[in-house]
Amino acid sequence: MTLLLETPVPAAVDDLTLRRSAARVLFTNWTGGSTVPSRGLYPHQWSWDSAFIAIGLRHLSVRRAQRELETLVGAQWADGRIPHIVFNPAVPLDAYFPSPDFWRSSRDGAAVGAPAGIETSGIVQPPVHALAAWLVHQADPEASHRRGFLPRMYGHLAAWHDYLTGPRNLGGRGLAAMVHPWEPGMDNSPCWDGPLQRVEPAAAGSYRRADLDHGQPAERPTDLDYGRYVRLATDYRDSGYADKGSRHAFAVEDPCVNALLIVSEHALARIAAETGADPAPHEHRATRLTEALVERLWSPDDGMFLCRDLVGGGLLAERSVAGLLPLIVPGLPQDLVDALIRTATGPGFRLGAIPMVPSYDITRPAFDPSRYWRGPAWFNTNWLLERGLRQYGQVRAADRLRTSILAAAGACDFAEYVDPFTAQARGTRDFGWTAALTLDLLAAAPSAGNTSRTTDPSSGERT
Question: What's the half-sphere exposure (Cβ side, CA atoms, 13 Å) at 413?
Fold first, then answer.
């Protein structure tokens, strides 16, 4: 199946200017040990943000990319979970909510192994980390070997995957389950509307939303949704962050999360082989997870993967970009690949017909081109889709999507997300993973042979 695409894109910025601008964002957002997604809206370290940021940072400074991941796993819990936020104690409590005094990880998570000296959240985000570690290693294997980067990361990453396939195997069929809408990373996706109906929201006066200090209300989750997020987080905290044996009002198996787990399990096999460990258990787990992904989440009628509701039972009918992203998984049956490409290019997602693939089916009533994960296009999901298309031989489609992503990034000041029809900026600007993934796509472009160097203006470090 070959795609011939005519994609309208914003006016392009030349590669060198784009590269320098993206580097400036990452230098500005660097805190000394990690990179904040944005200085205002997200002033701490986020889990899957740091993984994507490390993938881009490797093109500027391999050492910084390594430190990005090392800082994150330094906050790992003893049960293996990598928390979705690592809090910077220098940031005022009122700068972000839920703040560390809400999560109380070192106290309320002590029974399941939260670190005593670092405050974190208690939930997780998608497992991009082993893939990121392997790509960072590949950027400069000699530097990686000198610092013992992979041997130090391997145990952390193996424990992380054991956590997701152990305590988080709530459905009993091998896939990782998410117990809060923030965990799959697509926070207010319409996929969660049905499951969230079961959740009584926290009282409006019991918390203050700091996100509205930095974002437009029309582009952020509603107060009703936010109240439900707070209730779920409160209940999980009050359970001591326990997984199995707890009653979860929200528990889903998400195709993007599990696709990333499979890809990272393959990466972990390569890391194991590089460090002298046995890669076979990781390859076997990746195979079992792929089989479970197809068995549990594939919808032939929809031509894509859907989320499974473990509380209410059955697949959720909502169609989000998460259901296309298993294209990143190697070895899918060809008929599924063909169906995914038809769905991606069809009326719901319009790959190749609009600048970037939306986060939700544009033909559905819940679609909103401006509100967070309810329709806008995101750079990380389009980056993943580009990789998936290229993996399955859709080179022209991947090339055109890459061109469109780069044009949008340059035109929108590295926005958090964009309107999928116009590529107009939405959310915060100078967003970390937008800049980082721009650098990664530039490095893969024909012009990537450019060897000009960039200097961090804040430190003088040559990168």
Answer: 7
Active site residue: 183, 187, 235, 254, which one?
A: 187
Radius of gyration of the chain (CA): 20
Is the previous residue joined to 330 through a cis bond, with omega within 30 degrees of 0?
Answer: no
187 is catalytic: yes
Neighbours of 197 (CB within 10 A): 9
Asked whether the beta carbons of 52 and 35 are under 8 A apart, the reply is no
In the annotation, is 274 catalytic? no
Domain 15-449 falls in which CATH fold?
A: Glycosyltransferase (1.50.10)
As a whole number of Å, the end-to-end CA separation of the chain is 41
Nearest alpha-carbon partner for 193 in 364, 343, 350, 327: 364
Burial class (CB in 10 A: 0-12, 13-18, 19+), 117: exposed
Q: What is the pLDDT of residue 1?
A: 47
439 residue type, one letter = L
> Which one from 79, 309, 361, 416 is the annotated catalytic residue?
416
Q: Name the token pair of 112.
A: 């399941």
89-107: per-residue pLDDT in tens? 999 999 999 999 999 999 9
CB atoms within 10 A of CB 280: 11
Which residue type is seen at 423? A
Task: Tell me how long the chain is.
Answer: 463
pTM for this model (two decimals): 0.94
Domains of the chain, residue spans: 15-449
Q: How many CB atoms lie within 10 A of CB 287?
A: 14
